[in-house]
Write a structure and sequence with these properties.
This protein has helices spanning 40-43, 46-53, 71-84, 95-107, 182-200, 208-230, 235-248, 262-274, 278-292, 298-307, 313-316, 318-335, 352-361, 375-384; strands at residues 11-14, 32-35, 59-62, 88-94, 130-136, 146-151, 156-161, 169-172. By secondary structure, it is α/β, with parallel strands linked by helices. The strands form two sheets. A six-stranded parallel beta sheet has the order 1-8-5-4-2-3, sandwiched between helices.
């Protein structure tokens, strides 16, 4: 096992009717900026519950954050924070709203020029405190330091990470996910699944506990994901998926093990240039990376095949076992309704050079756990994603 230091200060408040607890988590004298997306929280009652819980507080609202949160919209919120003396940010929605909130928290107190520099690694020295009411389990942003932001003007999608943007608390009420459209439910399951795979499917590092925790999350998502589409109001199913998504990326299973993240880096650029849902790009890229890097990932793919999919490698042989594991992974995504080929979304080979060029522009020329996925390998991956 690799050395590591781990600390996670996020307070998780999990269960039914927990939104009413939000007021006790925010300083009573703070002016609160309530941030949300395209308005679904007003349709499902979460907005009303939040406002009721914050009765007597000074609350200013900012809506319209996109599913792929944009720098342009986030900066409009930054102006509100600065002009209104906002003392606390409350994200109400899915991971996209929370990612935008994290950027807003950092950008509002960034004094070294254009806040977009944060996305290129500029140091963050301060941030507005923030909390979350989560309504869409997927990104794990409710319990980590990460945020992904797109810039429409340049077709970029980048991420940053800072301990200063850990949420002070995150409220997870599975009942808020009952009204999610099937597409968002499926995307959340795929997103969480691939988060686990990025930390698990590398090389053996003698970390059996982390491996079994990862495999447990994967197996639970495989079992519960389809159930959520069949019976959206099953509380236990929704609760299990919600907790899986949090544990998939609260950095716990990634401690002491190598990590990949090439699927995400390539997927981000596809989203930035072609507008696909984040999970759609992950479902496209992951199975191909498993194949292209099958030799480097061989031991872990075989372990994944045997433990997660119960494939008998002794009976099939290694190559057929790897093929079967990749096929079952792709089939799982497709069963959820998430298509797994670029061609399914109208993207053809003519788009590949521009994607590679953007990745090179951002220095993403040595991806993967071995830092051996460069432009030529990315080209091969994208061509095989068609």
């Amino acid at each position: 096992m690799l050395d590591f230091t781990y600390q996670n200060p996020v307070k998780i408040i999990f269960g039914k009717e927990k939104i009413q607890d939000v007021a006790g988590e925010i300083p009573p004298d703070a002016t609160v900026l309530l941030l949300y997306g395209q308005g679904s929280i007003k349709k499902n009652g979460v907005h009303a519950l939040t406002i009721e819980a914050l009765a007597g507080r000074r609350v200013i609202e900012f809506g319209g954050i996109e599913p792929n949160p944009s720098y342009e919209t986030a900066m409009a919120a930054v102006n509100v924070v600065r002009e209104k003396g906002i003392g606390f940010l409350l994200s109400v929605g899915g991971g996209s709203v929370l990612d935008a909130t994290k950027f807003i928290a950092a950008a509002a107190r960034f004094e070294d020029g254009d806040p977009w520099q944060i996305m290129s690694g500029a140091p963050i020295h301060d941030a507005v405190p923030l909390g979350a009411i989560l309504t869409l389990p997927a990104t794990g942003s409710e319990m980590n330091t990460n945020a992904v932001i797109s810039r429409k003007s340049s077709a970029d999608k980048l991420y940053f990470s800072s301990p200063l943007v850990y949420p002070r608390f995150s409220i997870l009420d599975p009942t808020t996910t009952y009204s999610l459209p099937p597409r968002q439910t499926a995307n959340g399951v795929v997103d969480a699944f691939v988060h686990v795979m990025e930390q698990y499917l590398t090389w053996p590092s003698d970390a059996p506990l982390q491996d079994r925790m990862a495999e447990g999350i994967l197996q639970t998502l495989i079992e519960e994901g389809p159930k959520a589409l069949t019976d959206p109001h099953d509380y236990n199913v929704r609760a299990n998926i919600m907790w899986c998504a949090t544990l998939a990326l609260n950095d716990l299973i990634g401690q002491g093990v190598p990590e990949d993240w090439s699927t995400h880096m390539i997927g981000h650029q596809i989203t930035a240039m072609h507008g696909l849902d984040h999970a759609q790009t992950l479902a496209i890229v992951l199975p191909v990376i498993m194949d292209v890097k099958r030799d480097k990932k061989r031991e872990k793919i075989l372990q994944y095949a045997e433990r997660v999919w119960k494939i008998d490698s002794a009976a099939l042989g290694e190559e057929k076992t790897i093929d079967s594991a990749m096929a079952k992974t792709r089939e799982f995504f497709e069963t959820l309704g998430v298509r797994t080929r670029l061609g399914d979304y109208g993207i053809n080979a003519a788009s590949i050079p521009a994607i590679i060029e953007k990745l090179q522009e951002h220095g993403m020329t040595a991806l993967g756990e071995h830092a051996d996925i460069g432009p030529d390998t990315i080209r091969e991956i994208l061509e095989r994603c068609l």
